[in-house]
Amino acid sequence: MARAFGGPNKYIQRAGEIDRLAAYLAPLGKRALVLIDRVLFDTLSERIAKSCGETLDIRFERFGGECCTAEIERVRNIAVEHRADILVGVGGGKTADTAKIVAIDTGARIVIAPTIASTDAPCSAIAVRYTEHGVYEESLRLPRNPDAVIVDSALVAAAPARFLVAGIGDALSTWFEARSNIESRTDNYVAGGFPATEAGMAIALHCQDVLMRDAVKAKVAVEAGLLTQAVENIIEANTLLSGLGFENCGCSAAHGIHDGLTVLEEVHGLFHGEKVAFGVLCLLMLENRESEEIEEMIRFCRSVGLPTKLADLGIVEDVPAKIGRVAEAACRPGNIIYATPVPITVTAVRDAILALDAFSRSIH
């Protein structure tokens, strides 16, 4: 009979919002450490510094590129040295997660300003830690969500379209994994774990509706350098709807298979959401969903440029053995794959991945 819902304190999405960042930082503290992705560091550090003026004592730092133990410790030491009472993560999902972990560790407030809409990390109280080589290690459940998520939609739309498409792939998992958790009666990630609220389930389902309605239009618009209503809707779906949906309903085999895939060198050049999208298709096969539903999602993924076959992931040699390794990694004790409402074994997961690949190759 219990239930719980969590999310960020504030979500703002508007073109040009990075230049208004000071308005959201000032009420939270006086000393900010702003962690920015390397590619955007020079441009955005100048813009943010200009917007903040003399209102805050700000230190800017380049993100090292991986949310791993060494990078977390490095940023933590800088935060302590600066006596930062606000941690700001500006960039992609790994930048956001690093900022969230350090903020929790040091007692600072959390502000996330995503520059791409490639993952649902910004809004959640979840952070994923990897090795320095990008292999999944663990998902951390944090005691607090970000105080504010500030999305400059013009900045997001200006990024290469592949980032938005990867976010669509990550968001595609939201409803299907929510359904898995509902059917398996698995608790969500809020306050130690509770059954999903009606609100959480409604958000997860609406996320799916927005993707089906606007994803292709948004991709085409971003490829043309345009910011349309469809693009704004997909940015919200990838960032807010998916973030609220997964945290309040839970993940399952789509992300579990993603985590397993990270053991293969071939996939390290792929984005998180690209691997998750393939994991969604494998989840549907593992759950033995209707063929029509699986085919519909394969065609949707193809329509936006997401992988639907092992070859799309670069896995073309020693395939059975490699997928066996993926399945073993996905099925480690405690992995989120066990929220899937079917018996989970290494063999079952391996065969579902290989069967999905064969099914996808049969569809023309």
Unreliable sequence segments: none
Instruction: Tell the overall outline.
Output: globular
| Mean residue pLDDT | 96
How much of the residues is beta strand, in percent?
A: 5-15%
Report the helical percentage. Answer: 40-55%
Number of helices: 13
Radius of gyration: 20 Å
Order of helices and strands: EHEHEHEHEEEEHHHHHHHHH
| Number of DSSP-assigned strands | 8
Biggest pleated sheet: 6 strands, parallel
Taking the alpha carbons of the first and last residues, their distance comes to 46 Å
Strand order, sheet with most strands = 1-8-5-4-2-3
Structural class per helix/strand content? alpha/beta
Notes on the structure:
- This protein is of the alpha/beta class and 364 residues long.
- Helix content is 52%, strand content 12%.
- It has a 6-stranded parallel sheet with strand order 1-8-5-4-2-3, sandwiched between helices. It has a two-stranded antiparallel sheet with strand order 6-7.
- Strand 2 (31-36), helix 2 and strand 3 form a beta-alpha-beta unit.
